[in-house]
Amino acid sequence: MKSNLKKLVALVGIAILAVSSLHAQDSKALVEALVKKGVLTDQEAEEIRADLVKEFNTTSAGKLEVGSHIKKLKLYGDARWRYEYVGQDGQVNGSTNSHNWQARYRIRLGAEYAFKDNFSGGFELDSSTANDSGNQTIGAGFGKFGINVGLLYLTYKPWDWATVTGGKIRNPFYTTDLVWSNDLYPEGAAEILKWDLSDQWSIGLTAAQFNYTENNDSGSLTGNDKLQDSWIFAAQVPVTYQFGKFESVTVAPAFYSYTGNSAATVVTGSPSSTGTLSATNLNIVTAPGDVSFKLFSKKAKFYWDLAYNTSGEARIHQVYGIVNQNNDLTDSLAWLAGFQVGDSKKKGDWLVGLDYRQIGLGSIDPNISDPSWGNGYLNQQGIRLRTSYNFTDFLTGGVTYYNTWNLKENINTSATNQNGNTVGGLNGVNATSRLQLDLVWKF
Asked: Which helix (H) or strand (E) holds 51?
């Protein structure tokens, strides 16, 4: 009788704990604690564990049910409040002068699935329709904002060294935001191969086929003027040498080639290049990399990126219609160099980073690069300084400052390309500045 009473009391306590926390590990810990205190014998503890397992298997309350084909499900999300200053000074009569403080938010919620038969997949919802930003600006009469699909992909991994992914996917390339915005998820397919040649050397091959814009095949244009779907075909060979537990060098040369042309409006968080020529004359060689090491017990790295558009001069003349300047290497070249120390994963972590970059007028695609640096304009040079601190494992504060100025002065800001589209918005500023104050918390 006494033994049964002890078991009953223990089961009630464990049940209350399990309902309140929904963690089986807590129940197990409590049973073990009761055994150590002498409240339960080992035999009684085993009987209680069996009863709990039986109860859990026959009760639906508090459980997330998934299909039998799903091996693992991970839910994740984060939210961000941002208070931001954005300023710029225009080239011509102050036409693009702007100085403004604004409050913005971003929310993301996603799920990652591991299926049977070497398949996985996932999706992510976020708070913006822009291709390169999840931000929404508040102050519209307490209005509500929509939730949009940011990711939707399926992955197949037939071997440990090979992965194939399709849909709206995370960027598969080793890169920086000089070329690709961190918030941009391309659409199409990617194939990733990676081989560990030794304990120190690894090499990979990444290929991708991205559907940049889908044009109407029954449009009014005919013959050579008829619009074609625009694609980005790309390949990269990342190589890493690990010469210590925390020390490594990575270089990842790549080549991106745009085909077809574009008539679709590309929705970005910054000035964009649109019209029937915006996806032409882009054949870009890139060479990002980093050297990682420990500095006073903190992770640190030097990092860089280089992008050279082999069709840069033709892009400036044909796409942007700017023919009144002497083109040189700087117009077709974009590069950055930076240093970062620290990390941002758990409570007490901090991070500081600084980089300098230059972006020539014909060097990169402004529709997919970072919209915050230089406010998305081309023909700029300048710095980004950022820092963050983890107040808790889930709550992080950050400050980022951007300052840029003209790479070349007096470029014709009212030019039109051969199709009559005005393109001055891409280079019509003398200088920009931006300050972002962020508070981010994870779900």
From this structure: helix 42-58
Strands 136-137 and 429-442: unpaired
Compute CA distances 113 → 80, 116, 155, whole Å: 25, 10, 10
| Count of CB atoms situated within 10 Å of the CB of 119 | 15
Question: Which contacts qualify for 119-124: CB closer than 8 Å, 24 or more apart?
Answer: 119/154, 119/155, 119/156, 119/157, 120/154, 120/155, 120/157, 121/153, 121/154, 121/155, 122/151, 122/152, 122/153, 123/149, 123/151, 123/152, 123/153, 124/149, 124/150, 124/151, 124/152, 124/185
Cα separation, 169 vs 135, in Å, equals: 19
Beta carbons within 8 Å of 248's beta carbon, 6+ residues apart? 240, 241, 242, 291, 292
Tokens in use for 348? 């007490």
- For residue 196, the cross-strand partners are 202
As a whole number of angstroms, the distance between CA 146 and CA 140 comes to 13
| Length, in residues, of the chain | 443
Neighbours of 409 (CB within 10 A): 9
**Which residues are registered as beta bridge partners of 358?**
335, 381
Tokens of 343: 């990390």
What is the β-pairing status of strands 201-213 and 248-251?
unpaired
CA 348, distance to chain mean position in Å, is: 24
Which tokens belong to 76?
Answer: 């994740």
Helix (H, G, I), strand (E, B), or coil: what is residue 32? helix
pLDDT tens sequence for the chain (443 residues): 555 555 555 554 555 444 444 445 556 677 777 777 777 788 877 877 777 666 666 665 556 677 888 889 999 999 999 999 999 887 765 556 788 999 999 999 999 999 999 999 999 999 888 888 888 888 878 888 888 999 999 999 999 999 999 999 999 999 999 999 999 999 999 999 999 999 999 999 999 999 988 776 655 544 555 567 789 999 999 999 999 888 999 999 999 999 877 655 566 777 777 666 778 889 999 999 999 999 988 999 999 999 999 999 988 888 887 776 677 888 999 999 999 999 999 999 999 999 999 999 999 998 899 999 999 889 999 999 999 999 999 999 999 999 999 998 767 655 555 555 555 567 778 899 999 999 999 98
